[in-house]
Design brief:
Number of helices: 13
Strand order of the largest sheet: 1-10-11-9-8-7
Largest sheet: 6 strands, mixed
CATH class of the largest domain: Mainly Alpha
Helix content: 40-55%
CATH architecture of the largest domain: Orthogonal Bundle
Strand content: 15-25%
Shape: elongated
Order of helices and strands: EHHHEEEEEHEEHEHEEHHHHHHH
Bound molecules: zinc ion
Radius of gyration: 24 Å
CATH topology of the largest domain: Neutral Protease, domain 2
Number of strands: 11
Length: about 425
């Protein structure tokens, strides 16, 4: 299986029911897969003035310090909003590299980048005429006290006429790196979308921002039982190209996903094609529920039912989730397709809407049973034990509920069957 549970998915609205039903988080892809697109070296051409401004590198000298100097200057230029300064290390005649860097600068600036550090992660190594060195980037947006997200990129450098110049910089699949962004900022949420996609208009971004700001009330409340409300939520609205291009790419059956970046940091990506007004609040509440319950850490695959069950439970609010999934649960159970286990590991990759909806519905009913029977606080504590601390379900059941999992599981199964009748 090439895909993992790294991303948490929400399926598209079911066309048969005409609306919601947060579901299908089919198992998915590995974390941010970084695609290296190093620009080929241009050994002879160099721009007037530009290349001459690179630090001097003596023959036989390792360019480590020169590279560190360029990275420090570039970072400082970015943080003070100096586009020319940011591009200074990049050869004037290397249009693709300059375009890539310019786009990155513009998107990072639009996101109000507040921290940006670049540290060499190794000694540069020489391969043919080029020097290669991985660089650790730390970045965060919008708030002065934001916690940097770590990202490693590969870089390539050349020394031309005794001066250092950038020859290649890894193009990552982070939204701000891959796409020129338009950004909307609310008090709790930043929403960004491609600047050049006519379907992801500023009005669409405004609509998402309004729904997302409203969703924070519910999700912040649940966050109090975990790591506390995040400093800020980030939502990226993908056009068609970005749905495939950002991170590991979105599944055709999904409407949104949450990607845990590191403890305390997650990105939410939603597909612009699924943003109906009635669907949007549930969709965003569900994804933000992943943000606050997982806290930026990938959940164990075996706890799919609990991971999706809790997000669906949090987004269920007035019962809309359950109403949309219950018909699928009923037909799934009536057809004898459910083996009675509540610890589902997710719908198969080729699952139909019906199957997927049924799995989400069963997960929701199981988590709802735990919350109603033992109280919401204990249900949340159980989630923490199993998903965040990765304890076996029976150990967690004994410590949180004081009851063996076997008996809880049997009662939860009975509750699901009762609801499905
Ligand atoms: Zn989900």
């Amino acid at each position: 299986m090439t895909r993992t549970q790294w991303m948490r998915w929400t399926r598209r609205p079911d066309p048969r029911h005409g609306a919601l039903a947060v579901l299908s988080a089919a198992a998915v892809t590995a974390l941010a897969v970084l695609v290296t697109l190093l620009v080929p070296p241009t050994p002879t051409a160099y721009g007037a003035g530009i290349a001459l401004t690179g630090p001097i590198v003596r023959p036989d000298e390792n360019p480590l310090f020169a590279i560190q100097d360029v990275l420090a200057r570039q970072s400082a230029a970015l943080l003070r909003g100096d586009r020319d300064g940011y591009l200074q290390a990049i050869p004037a005649d290397d249009a693709p590299l300059r375009e890539q860097a310019g786009r990155r600068f513009d998107s990072l600036t639009a996101l109000r980048v507040r921290r940006w550090t670049m540290a060499t992660a190794d000694l540069p190594s020489q391969v043919n005429d080029a020097w290669r060195v991985p660089v650790d980037v730390g970045y965060c947006f919008a708030d002065d006290d934001c916690t940097p997200v770590q990202l490693r990129v590969s870089t390539k450098w050349s020394v031309v006429h005794g001066r250092l110049r950038l020859a290649g910089y890894e193009q990552t699949r982070r939204p701000w790196d891959a796409t020129a962004l338009t950004v909307k900022e609310g008090s709790r949420v930043t929403v960004a979308g491609p600047a050049d996609d006519p379907r992801v208009t500023p009005a669409v971004l405004d609509r998402v921002l309004r729904a997302a700001e409203a969703a924070t009330g519910t999700d912040d409340r649940f966050a109090a039982s975990f790591d506390g409300p995040p400093r800020r939520y980030f939502v990226y609205v993908a056009g068609e190209e970005q749905w495939k291009g950002w991170y590991a790419g979105g599944s055709a059956n999904a409407a949104a996903y949450t990607i845990p970046l590191q403890p305390g940091a997650s990105d939410v990506v939603v597909d612009h094609g699924t943003l109906t007004d009635s669907w949007l609040p549930t969709l965003i509440t569900h994804e933000f529920a992943h943000v606050v319950t997982l806290g930026g850490v990938a959940p164990p695959a075996a706890a799919w039912w609990l991971t999706e069950g809790i997000a669906t439970y949090i987004a269920n609010g007035s019962g809309g989730e359950l109403r949309n999934e219950l018909p699928s649960v009923r037909s799934y159970v009536a057809a004898g397709r459910w083996d009675g286990s509540v610890t589902l590991t997710g719908p198969p990759a080729d699952a139909t809407f019906e199957e997927t909806a049924a799995c989400y519905g069963i997960a929701l009913l199981a988590v709802t049973y735990l919350a109603q029977h033992y109280g919401e606080a204990k249900m949340l504590a159980f989630f923490t034990e199993v998903v965040r601390k990765r304890r076996p379900v029976d150990t967690a059941a004994q410590s949180v509920f004081g009851v063996p999992w076997k008996s809880i599981s049997a009662d939860a199964t009975a509750a699901v069957r009762a609801a499905a009748n």
